[in-house]
Design brief:
The complex is a heterodimer. By secondary structure, chain A is an all-alpha fold. Chain A has helices at residues 2-14, 25-30, 35-64, 73-95, 97-103, 114-126, 130-160, 170-185.
């Protein structure tokens, strides 16, 4: 149990996918102008991360490795991820058409979110069993949620702030992301490994 | 066929093709079932946008009415600043719903609401009743050969009556 808690803490804080490993940056900047949008985006990504990490681990362990087909990892993981994203998109479209509209192209872009494929690939190397693989996926998703929500909160405040003209827009967003990354480096050493 | 199958590399090829084929087949079947289950209803999004529009059906946006404009906003990326009767309040509500930037209402389409309500110069009114027919919200009270007046609470300031008046006795006032 403590092993799993360790995986979560490590994935959320110490090796945060977005701010420490620089994976999945495009939705961080693209879908974080508003709190609700960021929340919807991070929930969708977390769902895809969890589903894709579990299924791709199963495929790798029970199909690819026994048949010595590891060279098919990339293409089969991508099929799984694309399927999971399409499922999410179907769900979002029927549950909240407005959120679907607001997320726009960023929702199907989860397919090529490097954090998702990154978790699937890292799982084949470091996870011992399905539970660990799933936990790692959830941890990565929660880390993504945390950063997205914090970032959207800051950006909403920046809207009202008196930002110098040359810094407005993407520039101040990237500066903010850099400072958040600096803060997350503070977690390094919390969990070894 | 047995000779071909005996070769190690050929068996690996067959395994690879079978595995990927089955995987893609499973995903496709799963998605087809899911798409069938979740009855997609893009009309809900149109409805949400439509609710924010003033329902004057004045056509100042260049579309036949409020709902067609809502559809154009969602499907044809029409700008959200084309609704003068809604004025800045509608513009802000749309920007908030759709997470688009707030710009000014396009004044070439008409004066935004908040600029005023229709006012009839009663001394000049000839009672032609033409403005009654064009008013999308029935805010003008009157009858043929009688002086007309505007119900201020109902008027959305859409300006359609201004153009219809043959004696130019209607103006927009605060």
């Amino acid at each position: 149990m403590s092993e799993l808690a360790l995986i979560i803490v490590a994935a959320v804080l110490v090796n945060n996918f977005v701010l420490v490993k620089f994976l999945g940056l495009c939705p961080l900047l693209g879908a974080s102008t508003r709190f609700e949008t960021a929340l919807g985006m991070s929930l969708a990504t977390t769902f895809v991360l969890t589903l894709a990490s579990g299924i791709s681990y199963l495929i790798d362990t029970y199909l690819l490795v026994p048949w010595q087909l590891e060279y098919l990892q990339l293409i089969s993981f991508i099929v799984v991820i694309a399927g999971a994203v399409q499922l999410t998109e179907l769900f979002v479209r029927s549950a909240s058409p407005i959120l679907h509209e607001v997320l726009g192209v960023y929702l199907p872009l989860i397919t090529t979110n490097c954090a998702v494929l990154g978790v699937a690939l890292l799982n084949t190397r470091q996870s011992e069993n399905l539970l660990e693989a799933l936990t790692f996926g959830i941890g990565a998703g929660l880390g993504f949620c945390l950063v997205m929500i914090l970032f959207a909160g800051i950006r909403e405040r920046l809207e009202a702030a008196d930002v110098p003209a040359p810094f407005r827009g993407p520039a101040i967003a990237l500066v903010t992301a850099g400072m958040m990354s600096l803060a997350f480096i503070g977690f390094a050493g919390l969990v070894r490994g | 066929m047995p000779d071909w199958f005996a070769a190690e590399s050929h068996r690996a090829l067959l395994a690879a093709i079978t595995l990927l084929g089955l995987l893609i087949l499973t995903v496709s079947i799963g998605l087809t079932v899911a798409a069938d289950r979740m009855n997609r209803n893009p009309a809900d999004a149109v409805e949400a946008v439509n609710r924010l529009l003033p329902q004057t059906q004045c056509g100042q946006c260049g579309y036949p009415g409020c709902r067609p404009y809502a559809e154009a906003i969602l499907h044809d990326a029409a700008p959200i600043n084309r609704c003068p009767p809604g004025g800045n309040a509608t513009l802000r509500a749309l920007a908030d719903l759709l997470d688009r930037p707030v710009t000014a209402v396009d004044e070439s389409l008409g004066t935004p609401t908040g600029a005023g309500k229709a006012f009839i110069d009663e001394a000049a009114c000839i009672g032609c009743a033409r403005c009654l027919q064009v008013c999308p919200v029935d805010a003008i009270l009157g009858a043929h050969q009688y002086m007309h007046t505007v119900i201020a609470d109902e008027c959305t300031g859409c300006e359609l009556c201004v153009a219809a008046c043959p004696v130019d006795c209607i103006s927009l006032r605060h």
